[in-house]
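Progress against Task 2.4 (sequence-to-structure conversion) is shown through the following example record, which the project officer requested during the mid-term review.
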Amino acid sequence: MNSPLLMMLFPLAALAGPAADAPDLPPQAQVTSVLRSSPMVSAAGAMLEVEEARSRRLAAGPHEWMLRLTEQQRRVRTTPGERFNEQDVALERALRLPGKGELDRQLGAAGIASAKIGRGDALHEASRALLAGWFDWLREKAGAEQWRKQRDVLARQAGVVKRRVELGDAPRLEKLQADAALAQAEAQLAQAEGRTLVAAETLRRLYPALNLPDSVPEVAPEGIEQDSAKWVGAILEHNHELGVARSESLRARIGATRAEAERRPDPSVGVRVARERDGEERLVGLTLSLPLPGEGRRADADAAIASAQASAHREAGIQRRIEAEAAALYRRTTAARAGWLGQQAAAEALARSADLSERAWQLGEGSLSDTLNARRLAHEARLAASLARLDASEARYRLLLDAHQLWALDMDDDEHGEHDHP
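C-alpha cells generated for the chain above:
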C-alpha cells in the first residue's frame, strides 16, 4: 500500500492530540504501529483503491468506440469476368442517455463511501481484537502473579512448620499438610505460567511491535456516566457495521434506479465510409442502431428493486441488533464494576481473616488445617477480585472503544456524512 493511503488511514495529525496512555493498556504509539501493520487494515485500504478504480470505470461508461472494417469482392453477371474490390469502414459508439451517467457517478461515489466505512470497520475490528487479546494475557498474567504470591506464603508457612516439627512443637502431620499445600500451589503456578506464556506468544505473533510489561498494573476501574441512552446513541453513531449496511442500502437504491433507467436502451451512432466498384462509387453515411427492449431488461430492474428492499431490511435488522448489543455492553460494564467492588471487599475481609487465623495458630490457639483453609479462601478471593477488576476494565474500555472515545487512531471519521440517506 502506498504511503498516501496510509496517511488517509490514520489521520492522527488532524486530531487535537492523543490522550495520555492508560497504565493498564499498551502505549498508544505501539497501538498505532501494530494496527498500521494489520493485514486486515491493509486489505481494507486495498479495497478502497479497488472501489476508486471502479468509480472511474463507471464514470467512463460501459460503451466504447467500435471500428468495423469490411473487405469484399463484387462480381457482375452481365459482364462476365468483371470483378470489383470494395471496402467499407465504419466507426460507431453507443451513447448513454441523459441521466444514466449521473447515476453511474453516484454508484461510483457510493462504492468509495462504502469502502471507506469498511476500512474504518477493519480498523475498529483490529482494535477490538487487540483489546481482547491484551486482556486475555493480563488475566493469565494476573492469575500467575496471584499463584506466585500464594506459593510464597505457603513456602514461608511450610518453613515455619518444619522448624516447629524439628523442635518438637508440632506433629509431623502438620508438616505433611503444609508440604502438600505448597506442592499444590507450585503445580497451579506452573500451569498458570504456562497459560501466560501461550497468551504472550499469541500476542507477539499477532502484534510483533507490541511490548508486554513485566507485571500487571493494579488500576481500579473508573465508573462511567450513568446514561444508557447516551452510550447507545454514541455507539450507534460510530458503528461501522451499521454504516456499511446504510451505505450498501443506499448503493442498492441507486442501483435499482440505474436498472430502471436501463430499460430505455442506449442508441448507437456512427459514421460509415465505403468504396465500391473499385472506387467508381464512394459512399459516406451515418448509422443509427437501437436495441429493442424486452422482458430481460424488466426482469433486471425488478431484481434490482427487490435487492434494494432486501438491503433496507438488512439495515433495519443490523440497527436493531447493534442497539441491543450496545445496551447490553453498557449494562455489562456497570455490572462488572459492581461485581469487582463486591469481590474486592470480600478479598480484603478474607485476607484479614487469614492473618488472624495464622496468628492464632502461631499462638497455639488454632489448627494448621484451619489456617491453610483460611489462606486458600483468601487466595481464591484475591484471584477472583483480580480477575473481576480486569473484566471490569476490559468492559469499560470496550465501551469507550465502540463509542470512539478510547484510542485516537480508532477515530477514523472518513465515513461521517458519506452514508447518510438522501
